[in-house]
Amino acid sequence: MPTRSEEMLMDLWMSLLLLVWITCVPSVSMTPITGQSRSTQTGGSAAMASGLGEGQRLLSRTKRGWVWNQMFVLEEFSGPDPILVGRLHTDLDVGSKNIKYVLAGEGAGTIFAINELTGDIHAMKRLDREEKAEYTLTAQVINADTDEPLEPPSEFIIKVQDINDNPPQFLEGPYRASVAEMSAVGTSVTTVTATDADDPVYGNSAKLVYSILQGQPYFSVDPNSATIKVALNDMDREMRDEYLVVIQAKDMGGHMGGLSGTTSLTVTLIDINDNPPKFSKSLYEFVIPEDLPLGKMGGKVKANDRDYGENAKSTYSIIEGDDQGVFEIVTDAQTQEGILKLKKPLDFETKKAYTLKVEATNVLPEYSSTAHFKDTATVKITVDDSDEPPVFSKPMYLLEVNENAPINTVVGTVTAKDPDSSKSTVRYFIDRHTDLERQFNINVDDGKITLAKPLDRETDMWHNITVTATEVGNHSPISRAIVAIRVMDINDNAPEFATEYEAYLCENGKPGQVIQTISAVDKDDPIQGHYFNYRLVPEMLNNPNFTIKNNQDNSISVLAKHDTFRRQKQEMYFLPIIVTDNGQPPMSSTNTLTIRVCGCSKEGIVQSCNVEAYVLPIGLSMGALIAILACIILLLVIVVLFVTLRRHKNEPLIIKDDEDVRENIIRYDDEGGGEEDTEAFDIATLQNPDGINGYLPRKDIKPDLQFMPRAGQHSGPNGVDVDEFINVRLHEADNDPTAPPYDSIQIYGYEGRGSVAGSLSSLETVSSDSDQNFDYLREWGPRFRRLGELYSVGESDRET
To answer: Which domains are seen in the chain, by residue range?
Structure first.
């Protein structure tokens, strides 16, 4: 592989060769611009005719205006001076200085510059073909003095020539692929693709050749198509399942000096079923207790398979040693182990050991069509003796007993035996959860079931109990058996009417008319079925009003003997009837049929059965009258309640004079404010209703508002009534919008005028009891003498 310095030297040589070519060819290929031919006789360009023989043909060369097609410039050229791209020339340029070359178009003035006098075009910048491959420009010759065009403009192209400056790249790498193990040589694995940004047309800069740098001798690559193929036979996934392949793409056709790029490919071998299952050992031994439940695991075997996934799955089967089908073996989907399970119970006393041959089979291998992969192993099973519970002779017993049989009657017997070799004695018990009423007992030694209570078939026809059996001395293993006891019927119930009949007899009925059809029921259930005999009681055999008729279907019809029944004479009749069954012994009962005499229509439809119907208005029944009476009573109650509520509502709230109380405590639903509430109302106002000039200050409004007395509200000094005063103040408070409704406790202690003693209230007392002198009480007269003595005694006691 060439080094980077060699590549740079190669690029330098190519640049020098191109420069020499440009220098040696001063003009580019010409094509006509103007399309006009000129005579060569002007401009010093005409051929001289002297020296030509007479008669010789005068030859002339037709010259055209300045012409060209396209120019080339090398990419990535970075010399010290601008590179000469080409030269424009016109035959108008004969050395005069009055013409000028002008360049326009893509990159004119920035990338490309033209010498106005000589027409030389230079590239001012380093160009990259991968960015832009060609530029389209326009050239024109104009007068240098007047800038007038001398010829029409002409378009030309500058193409950027490619050099090998871009290495190949694998844009989609690194790659991953897979191939089946044991694949044949030449099997295609995958295809990789590299790209080169160089010009695929010019030279070999983009011609790629692929090779493998790592991964041989397992894989190969096609140098042109980059297809990766298997290069080695019998690659086994179980030996190695993954390979790393490094692929190189080199341009310049793979020759020295070309650039290269690499990528990696990870190849994974896909598993095929090419390995048979193999048991880890040839002999397995298990000990299984004989009481192992069915379906439970008794042991595990394992056949290993070097394959992977589905190819590693094996199927297990028992091919020898299990003629009775006691065992089965299934595959665990997670561990691929063979699980040995019981299909039938084991019995140590019957068979103590088993020898099985187990086979593990794999599916048909993909590369072989001859046979299955399989392997076998031997499994020896030893049955371990367990203390088994007793075994009943039957899993279920069916017993019968007559109802009302006496207590201790034997219903039946259950038996169980110990299957173990010890043959222990068995004891029997009744599971009382199945015999909550304790109607049965069982003998613990022989299993005889007896009655503990009388049974009634009409209450319960069947009794299902569970009997348990255990060994003597070992109550852990328990066996159970179901005992179904059927209660047999005896004739112990008398027949009775099927329902409570109530017959209706029309007054205008005819003799022999059927009044009621009667049937009977019996709780007993005789085998031969029911047959009932009906008859009237002996006292009614010659009943003048009614008789009975057997319908021959266990029912009778009650018939009327005459048509003279009247409600006014007798409204209701009672007819006793004896019903007897055919059991042994026969049972009978007396049932009474109630017959009501009713008024009927001509068609025999019952209309009324009450005597009161004669006194009721036509068209109204007793029920209708009761409903009308109830509505009237309800209306009266509503009116009384309404009047009572109106009277309570209109009752005045003003206290009468005889109910007036001078000292009141007004209680509000408020906790109060302590000292502040005592000042909510000035008690001095009531004690001195005259006030000061009729002005009464208020303390139940805001302090900053002064309530001025209104004209006409001054009370006279004489005849002041506290009740009137309070009403006036109440009226003022109700009509004063500035007075808030402060809650307060107000005590009125005014006792009126004319009392010698003055006020007895202690509200104005400013001194304590110890500072007061009560001697003045004796001066008030004989009425207060006793009070003065009491206070004097109290004061002397305190001093003592």
So the answer is: 70-161 (2.60.40.60), 169-270 (2.60.40.60), 278-384 (2.60.40.60), 391-488 (2.60.40.60), 496-608 (2.60.40.60)
